[in-house]
Write a structure and sequence with these properties.
160 residues, alpha/beta, 5 strands, 20% strand
Length: 160
């Protein structure tokens, strides 16, 4: 199974980008041994439309253009479910074992994801009830993906 993180907005050079890349590389190292074929990052430019509805629609169109044919969809959503690391790992492992070719994680823009994309998501998750900057959400998501791989591998990185 291939993983992809699709984000509205770009990470500029700096500590957030370096940390995100570190977790992506760590995942690639351990993920191959677990049947994961890589972790791609798709950065989509923020819409410049004047109103929120138009921005959400433009961003949804751009997201749809990079979605693979068959995939499990995970939306990062402040109203999503709080999922512990072990459950997150189990879900990724289930999708991999079921032969799902790709899992796509979506991080929306400042106005959020379109209702259609939210409906298509098999899982909607939140990193608590606080509002987080998109850069931090990306780093936290990549860390959790890496942590999920370590849990699936039985590695001691994860300690409950």
């Amino acid at each position: 199974m291939r993983l992809a993180v699709t984000c509205i907005g770009r990470l500029k050079q700096g500590p957030e980008r370096e940390l995100a890349e570190r977790y992506r590389e760590r995942f690639d190292d351990i993920g191959r041994k677990l049947g994961f074929r890589g972790l791609d990052i798709h950065e989509i430019a923020e819409s410049r439309a004047r109103d929120a509805g138009a921005r959400i629609a433009e961003e949804a169109t751009a997201i749809a253009a990079v979605l693979p044919d068959k995939y499990a969809l995970v939306a990062l959503d402040e109203r999503g479910k709080s999922v512990d690391s072990a459950s997150f790992a189990q879900q990724l492992g289930r999708w991999r074992d079921e032969g799902i070719p790709s899992t796509v994680f979506l991080i929306g823009g400042a106005d959020g994801l379109s209702p259609e994309l939210q409906r298509k998501a098999q899982l909607r998750i939140a990193f608590g009830s606080a509002t987080w900057p998109h850069q931090m959400v990306r780093v936290m998501l990549l860390e959790q993906i890496y942590r999920a791989a370590t849990i699936l591998a039985g590695h001691p990185y994860h300690r409950a």
